[in-house]
Design goal:
It comes from Pelistega ratti. This is FAD-binding oxidoreductase. This protein is an alpha+beta fold. 34% of the residues lie in helices and 20% in strands. Among the domains are: 86 residues, Uridine Diphospho-n-acetylenolpyruvylglucosamine Reductase, domain 2 (2-Layer Sandwich); 119 residues, Uridine Diphospho-n-acetylenolpyruvylglucosamine Reductase, domain 3, CATH 3.30.465; 118 residues, 2-Layer Sandwich (Alpha-Beta Plaits). It has 16 helices and 18 strands.
Length: 472
């Protein structure tokens, strides 16, 4: 008997998509990868996913799990072989429970991140994971890639926000680890194995997540700097002055603001183009009062002004102005997409080495590709840069053909500064062949051993993170 009728029996024929009905789920969000699949299957719960996995083991059928399909490395797109099924988790979209005494929320993996944020808000709590795709990305995908976002500086990555998981294993068993415990020292931390594994070790179906008190007030400002080293200095001053109240420190080059101004003229950019070459959005969250937040903010920022570390600053006077400053930052990727496809890098560098890395790598790239545009922004507070490269004006056609050469220059430089070639986007299929050049061989060997133990038939998201030919 063929696989499709058996899948129909598990989830219902209306939730097994083939042919044209499946097409929308076979390409990644950036349009860089398109694959084929036997079917796209939409289960409703962990039990149905477990049954699907057992069936796929029987038929030796690869499985690709997909949530909101907002990934940037092709991790949720099947290959061109057409031998896999895609498990779509979007029907697993229930908020299962909220415990305000324990400050936890338990949700299914297909919940949209924004829906989890809103559920926490309605309960008088904060779920702090926040990123540009929060209106469409899912919690399962956030955990599978260990997503970061704009508040990592204060609250950590997705891994730091997860207390427990429910996971369907490669054998089709269900591990119920939805424990809301902050201390559980009873053996190996299986949770952390699955988080960040991009669906290659198991399928996350639910999670118990940390909640936090809602801040009483926030203060936001956009600061201008003459160089990155001054921005790093102010970041250190802010850490000391604000402590855990510092929630965001987002770096942006002047060119980033320029393209936002050009593509979205309706967005207010509060500085003239010639003000400074670098900018940073800084935000603190205060647990006392708006006045207390404002006073602390002005004290620290004022001292940086007096020392000559800041060229200029705009401090938000209202929630609306704060929203406008954040909207400016969040519009950079959208503006970047409008000016033409570029070569994206999601890297991390020790904060202390950021200025030197950018100076050196910019020079290396300009020497090889004169006139390229440096579209640099990201989360300076945690060392994560979106170090993106745009084609020289008028040379957009075919620029992506140079991606391998650009990656070589950038990643070699990242390695020389003791950084990482992936900070929050994952490896997927985009970087799986590059990873061995920059990962310690012992680390890679351990990763392969874990993969062989947890997915012995290599059916879970094959060809992602680890090259399948290296496994056996």
């Amino acid at each position: 008997m063929s696989l499709i009728p058996l899948l129909n029996d598990i989830v219902g024929a209306e939730h097994v998509l083939t042919g044209d009905d499946a097409t929308a789920y076979l390409s990644d969000w950036r349009g860089r990868y398109t694959g084929k699949a036997l079917a796209v299957v939409r289960p409703e719960n962990a039990e149905e996913i477990a049954a699907i996995v057992r069936l796929c083991q029987q038929y030796e059928t690869p499985i690709v799990t997909q949530g909101g399909n907002t990934g940037l490395c092709g991790g949720a797109t099947p290959s061109n072989k057409g031998d896999a099924i895609v498990i779509l988790t979007t029907r697993l979209n229930k908020i299962l429970s909220i415990d305000t005494d324990n400050d936890t929320i338990t949700v299914q993996a297909g919940c949209i991140l924004q829906a989890v944020q809103e559920a926490a808000t309605n309960a008088g709590r904060l779920f702090p994971l926040s990123l540009a795709a929060e209106g469409s990305c899912t919690i399962g995908g956030n955990l599978a890639t260990n997503a970061g976002g704009t508040q990592v500086l204060r609250y950590g990555n997705a891994r730091d926000l997860a207390l427990g998981l429910q996971v369907v294993t490669a054998e089709g068993e269900i591990w119920n680890g939805l424990r809301g415990l902050r201390k559980d020292n009873t053996g190996y931390d299986l949770r952390d194995l699955f988080i960040g594994s991009e669906g290659t070790l198991g399928i996350i179906t639910a999670a118990t997540l940390k909640l936090y008190p809602q801040p009483i007030a926030k203060s936001t400002a956009l600061l201008a700097f003459e160089d990155i080293q001054k921005a790093v200095k102010v970041l250190s001053r802010a850490r000391q002055g604000f402590g855990s109240a510092l929630t965001g420190f987002e770096l942006m080059s002047a060119y980033c603001l320029e393209i936002v101004r050009r593509i979205f003229p309706q967005i207010k950019v509060p500085f003239a183009p010639e003000t400074a070459p670098w900018y940073a959005l800084i935000e603190i969250s205060d647990s006392e009062s708006a006045e207390h937040a404002r006073n602390r903010f002005e004290e620290v920022i004022g001292a940086a002004f007096e020392d000559g570390d800041i060229v200029d600053a705009v401090i938000a006077e209202s929630g609306q102005q704060s929203h406008e400053i954040w909207h400016l930052r969040e519009s950079i990727p959208l503006a970047e997409a409008e000016i033409g496809k570029g070569i994206k890098n999601d890297i991390s560098i020790p904060v202390s080495k950021t200025a030197a890395f950018i100076e050196k790598t910019n020079a290396l790239l300009q020497a090889q590709f004169p006139g390229i545009r440096h579209i640099i922004f990201g989360h300076l507070g945690d060392g994560n840069l979106h170090y993106n490269i745009g084609a020289p004006d008028g040379q957009e056609e075919g620029f992506l053909d140079y991606q391998k050469d650009v990656y070589k220059i950038v990643f070699d430089s990242v390695a020389s500064f003791e950084g990482s070639i992936s900070a929050e986007h994952g490896i997927g299929q985009l970087k799986k062949d590059i990873l061995p050049d920059y990962k310690d061989e012992v680390e890679l060997a351990l990763m392969r051993k874990i993969k062989r133990v947890l997915d012995p038939n290599a059916l879970l998201n094959p060809g992602k993170v680890i090259n399948s030919v290296e496994l056996y």
